[in-house]
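Good day; I would like, with your permission, to put a structural problem before you. What I wish to show you is a protein chain and, alongside it, a tokenised description of its three-dimensional fold. I would ask you to consider whether the tokens describe a fold that such a sequence might reasonably adopt. You will find the record immediately after this paragraph:
***
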Amino acid sequence: MSDRIIAEWMLAAACHLAGDQVAAVAHCKCGFELETSIGRLDINLFGYDHRLRAEIALARSLWLLGSRKQARKQALEAMNEAARLAPAANYCMAVVHSVPVLLWSGNTGDVADHVDRAISLAEKHSLRGHAAAAQALRGEWLFMSGRPADGVEALRQALRGLHREQLHMVIPAASRALADGLARSGRYDEARETIQSAILFAERMRQTFWMPELLRTQAQIILTSPNPDRKAAELALRRSMDSARSQRASGWELKAAVPLARSMKNRGLGADAHALLQRVFEARPEVSRSTARPLH
């Protein structure tokens, strides 16, 4: 039975990264249901707790499917549980992959303590890859908290470590955050170059999972630059929505739809903008309208 449970949880993680969030949630829940018949499964392989990995995959998939509050609760529970588990790699892994769930919603209040603790533990136990990944999250948190210059410097340092450790799975996310931070600092040329490099890296590595956010950020950089090319930005946002839709990632689809609708409204296409958002809500009823910002 334990082999079947682990298999379900491994499939969940694979489906999540492959872009099938519905299947990821189904495999997570199937594993948890099977586990109830034998009690909590406590198996660490290669330093990681398989149940914890399933809890993290569930949190991320729930957010992408539009269940933000449930995802946030799940992510915080996963990190708190990991803090009680040995070895330290479990907690570091939980932070690296759970904190993004909080940042995707703009929630910075629960981030700093977890990230700082993960960096300290990773450095203490020579977990260089985890240290670099947590440092990247700290950089993103810094510029989201109003310190863009500090965030950019932290992200540059983190990316050097991620490339050195060949932690390819999180490089696109860290590069996206760096591009965002550069744009917030008014360094638009660097931001455009950085996000284009991140997109090319993700395409080369076939990391389609990150494409919705990379394309959305590319559009946002264009829109906030002097003399923005609205046509190019709206094309990137539509591509972001298409990529998110292919993963049934309602959360990311909505994040692209809102700036697209706002741009359309600014061009005098208010009716079309509202129709666009209406289609997103109707296609994904699990997405709450409260997550969309007003179009002004």
User: Anything to note?
Assistant: Confidence is low (pLDDT under 50) at residues 288-294.
